[in-house]
Structures are given as structure tokens and as C-alpha cells.
Amino acid sequence: MNEYNPKRSSSWNYGGNNWKLSRSKIDLFKQCPRCFYIDNKLGTKRPSIPAFMINSAVDYQLKQEFDVHRAKDTQHPLQKEYGIDAKPVSHEKINEWRENFEGIQYLHKPTGILVSGAIDDLWINGNNEYIVVDYKATARNNPIAELDNESKYHDGYKRQIEVYQWLLRRNELKVSDTGYFVYCTGKYDQKAFDKKIEFDVALIPYTGNDSWVEPTINEIKECLESDEIPKSGEGCEHCAWWYARNGYEK
Questions:
Q1: Which one, 20, 46, 149, 187, has least CB within 10 Å?
Q2: Domains of the chain in sequence order
Q3: Please, which residues have CB within 8 angstroms of residue 222's CB and are 6 or more apart in sequence?
Q4: d(CA 75, CA 88)
């Protein structure tokens, strides 16, 4: 069995040729500055959880489905069902913006940090405003039809939309404040598996506010330039485990 090796090449750490500030790294900083610093400055990343391949499969299928309507310049049935004035947009960079190691990029000149984020989909409305769309998949007894304001996961989803909106605006696009989640909930009430899982699909609107992104990038720059490891984020389970494992008071 291979031993877990959390270390990475220094070129992928802050200051290295390959390092850039991804959307997920911004969210890690919001969750826990300490974990963010140890990861990006010192090069020891958090242990990752196994990938949810069923979620990746749903993402892929949704992209294929919406791309059919993108090519035809028509509305998707889900957009019609919810009465949304939008359709998938055929932007010349849509495929690049979807790539995990490319995404939408913007050089934040005050800090010199290259910020990036890979979107799931991009729509456009009748006012020629671009709409950020993110796909989500889960399995529950009851389908998810709205965001839970008490959920830390849903808080992260909201920030995700807002970072994408900020990036698109910095690329000089007219962006709607309203983004959407295409939320797929796997059903538990099927009488038989029959080699397929059925999903309830909801289109959930979210009005974003990206005003926090700019000051957060400035905070991240200050954090990374410091020689001191910052404090843990409130409720960080990774830090709590480390302190307990090594007998330290948090």
C-alpha cells in the first residue's frame, strides 16, 4: 500500500510558477485560514475525501444535455418549465471556462494574484446578461427545492456562484446578479433499481453579491506574505483533529 504523501512540488505552492488562486482555495481560506496557509504556503494539503463519481457522471450528463440546446440556440425544457428567460449561451470560451485547470481567469493587479474558477454552465437572458449556473447532485428522502440558510455546504455553494460572477465581470461581461443551481436529488422511493437511479431535478435561483471577493483576495495576499501561521477557522474539524491528536489546546 502506498503511504499518504501530502507534500507537493514547490512550483504548485504560493510563489511557484504553477500556483494560482482557484475558487476552491478561496473557499478554503473562508473556512479556515490556518488550513489554507499550511496548504498553499507550506505545501501540506488537507487529506482529501474520495471523489463522488456519481456526481461527476450527473455533471457530465447535464453538460451534454444543455449542450444540445446550446448548439440549436434553443431553451432547455427545464428553463421552460420554470419560466426562465434564458438559454444556454454559445460563448467562444465556454469549453475553456469549464476546464478544471483553466477556467475563467483574471490577474488581480493590486496583489499580482491570478484568480481562476471553472464553471459548470453559462446561460444568457433577454437582457444579454450572462447567468452563472452550477450543477449539484445528492440523494435524500426529500428532494432539495431550495437552499438551506443553516447549511455550511450551501453557504459554500453561494460563495462559489459569487466568485464566478466576480470573475466574469472582471472579464468585462455583463453578468446577472441571479445565478441558478440545477439541483438533482436521487430518489429513495423507487420500487426497483432496474439498473438506473431516478432524480428529482429542481432549478434553484440565487441572488449573488460578490462584494466580499475583492477584500478577501487582499486578505489572502496578506496571509500568504506573513511568516506566521494564522488561527484556525471556527468549527474546522481538520484543525480540531490535529490539536486533539497532538495534545494541544486549540
A1: 149
A2: 10-245 (3.90.320)
A3: none
A4: 7
Confidence (pTM): 0.92
Distance separating alpha carbons of residues 241 and 245, to the nearest angstrom: 6
> For residue 107, what is the enclosing H or E element?
strand 104-108
Which three three-digit cell numbers place residue 205?
A: 435561483
Type and span of the H or E element at 137: strand 130-139
Cβ pair 23, 163 in contact under 8 A: yes
Alpha helices for 49-176 (secondary structure H): 53-72, 77-81, 94-98, 152-170
| Rounded CA separation 225/219 (Å) | 10
Taking only the tens place, the pLDDT of each residue in 147-199 is 888 788 899 999 999 999 999 999 999 999 999 999 999 888 888 888 888 89
**HSE-CB for 85 with a 13 A CA cutoff:** 7
Q: Up-side HSE of residue 241: CA atoms within 13 Å toward CB?
A: 6
Q: Are strands 130-139 and 104-108 parallel, antiparallel or unpaired?
A: unpaired
